[in-house]
Amino acid sequence: MLPDPVRARVSPDDPELTRLIRAERIRMLFASTVPVALFSGIFAVALAALVAPQVGKEHAAIWAGLCVLASILRVVHLSAYLGSSNRAHAIWLKSLNIACLVHGGIWGLAGLFMPVQDIVTAAVVVATLVGACAVCTFTLQAHIVPSMLMNLPLLLPASVMLFTRLDAYGIFGGVGLLCLLGLMMFESRRVERRITELLWLRFTTDRVARERAEALKLAQRHSAIKDQFLATMSHEMRTPLHGILGLARLVHHRLPPRPGLLTDARQQVELIERTGEHLLGIINDVLDFSRIEAGKLQVNPSAFELHGLVHDVLSVLAVTASEKGLNVHEHIDLPAPCWVRGDAARLRQVLHNLVGNAIKFTEMGEVRVRIGRSGQHTSQAELIGFQIEDTGVGIPPQHLPLIFEAFHQVDGTFGRRHNGTGLGLTISREIARAMGGDLVCTSVMNKGSVFTLMVPLPATRIEQVDLDLSEQLDTAPAPETSERPLCQVLLAEDNPVNAIVAEATLANLAVNVTRVENGLQALAELQREDHPYDIVLMDCQMPELDGIEATRRLRVWEHNRGKRPVPVVALTANAMNTDRERCLAAGMNDHLAKPFRQDELEALLMRHLKGKRLQPSVTASDPA
Question: Terminal CA-to-CA distance of the chain, rounded, Å?
């Protein structure tokens, strides 16, 4: 019998599997035709020569000739089967049954001709027939019908002839042959069922493997489509969002803080900024979640000062807390300064999420942030614990194991009362685990919750390095500063709104800007022998020639002429990890995703423009 899972998966009326099993069964029946036919002819001739003196040479010769003819017909039948284009057709099993019946009947004639009174000759004939029966049972075990049609006419005549002796030897021999025949049929039936079961399992396993391979291919295709969709939608949303945020920040910067209509205008512009930044946060959450699902979440460790990072996060969120009448207390039990090695951006993201959630879901009371060494170690370093405690409503015990699941919210009304995607805690825990730590939560209803982030942040030593450009600008005498050459920037941007934002941002940094609208124009500018540009800010998606291909051609041109490579930075709304890798692989030096802030662009320029004059305005830290 087939196992239950197999029976559940394939039913007997499954035409495809029925056809495959019938084809394989017929193939197994025909597989041993040549050796069986060969040995059948040889042993028939040998037996005829051996018993010819007792049964008569003529009878023995006729019988041997019929056996040889039957063997030849079996080989011809095999050739016709092998030449057929439809070997699974039922006609081949029917014709094989007829061939086996004829072949077995011819061999069975030896039992009719044997001299039953000559016990030695009779024993030789019976032994030969028993051997032939065993061979037939073994070679035809895939189906009981041809086995039965071969063996019944092969042994029954000999059994009947032995009974005609009417003595103990005859009765014993006849009964023995009948018992042997019954045992052969029973074994043939058992083996046939076993082969049937194995064939069902084989073909269903093949089907499952094929379906799994197809499902995997389909899943990979869907994953690729999803990635492409996310990348496209991210770009298409970030491009206008960059323009909206950039223009809102420019207007907000230029509106004087005067009472009356201007104050209302400033507040409305601030609302546009906050709404845009909230939308940007949602886009980033979706992208991070897609990276987590694809197993592509990466951390990039570097040295950073922990006190400064925590202070930056809390100072930003303190404004929101104060608007709700909440106090945010911090206690850092670490030496100051505390230089560690880790992914500062990802740690900032998690802390901002956890503290922001604590403020969001706390109506009154306070939020406490405690940071210190945990005393626990990993293979990387001692774990540093970040404990964020609030006095909010708490989390019901039945929901506590589910809060880190994607899109899970304790109360369905939270989606209406609080903004959010339901992905923040999921992303935060995955980031913590990617950094080698973990994020856990404890909570008491109506008393509050405590989120504990544990991450390995090994201490690091900061070697004495040359002052960066900003320090040089701060310490250099004013005549020296004015003598520094102005930075010459080539901006390749086809979107007019984004171009306005970028040019205004660069104007705040006191640099000279030349704008082109596509990659061909950018190449034409950069392939001038005396081009003055210190850096190129290149959009990736532009008409006629995109920024990726333009950079590839530029690098080839510079290499062929022995030119010093000009720094090229991608300013693009493509924010996926693969986009950054594509930019760097094309020869770009850096990547800054839109929407970006003025301080981010300033930091990027400082990294790549050593020795050039860069004079941020007094609002350089303001959004741009």
Answer: 74
Distance CA 363, CA 351 (A): 20
Which of 56-65, 112-121, 510-519 has the weakest average pLDDT?
Answer: 112-121
Confidence of residue 462 (pLDDT cuts 50, 70, 90): low
DSSP state at residue 401: G
Chain centre distance of CA 311:
39
CA atoms within 13 A on the CB side of 114: 32
The tokens describing 489, both together, are: 């920037």
- Give the three-state DSSP class for 568: strand
d(CA 248, CA 186): 89
Q: What does the alpha-carbon distance between residue 153 and residue 142 come to, in Å, rounded to a whole number?
A: 19
Q: Which residues contact 467 (CB under 8 A, 6 or more apart)?
A: 475
CA distances for 42 relative to 46, 56, 64, angstroms: 6, 19, 9
- H helices of 140-167, in order, are 144-163
Calpha distance 154→136 (Å, rounded): 10
pLDDT of residue 622: 37
Q: What is the pLDDT of residue 204?
A: 86
What region does 510 belong to: left with phi over 0, alpha with psi -120 to 50, or beta?
A: left
Q: Counting Cβ atoms within 10 Å, is residue 266 exposed (0-12), middle (13-18) or buried (19+)?
A: middle
For residue 510, what is the DSSP state?
T
Distance CA 148, CA 419 (A): 78
What element of type H or E holds 381? Answer: none
Where does residue 245 rank: exposed (0-12), middle (13-18), buried (19+ CB within 10 A)? Answer: buried
Kindly calculate the radius of gyration of the chain based on its CA atoms and give it in whole angstroms: 44
Is the backbone of residue 232 left (phi > 0), alpha (psi -120 to 50) or beta?
Answer: alpha
Reported as a single tens digit per residue, the pLDDT across 531-547 is 888 899 988 888 888 88
Helices (H) then strands (E): counts for the chain = 20, 12
The 10 Å Cβ neighbour count of residue 327 is: 11
* Phi-psi sector, 330: left (phi>0), alpha (psi -120 to 50), beta: beta
Judged against a pLDDT cut of 60, whether residue 433 lies above it is answered with yes
- DSSP category for residue 494: -
Residue entry with tokens 């959450």: 285
Could you count the other beta carbons within 10 Å of the beta carbon of residue 80? 11
pTM across the whole model: 0.53
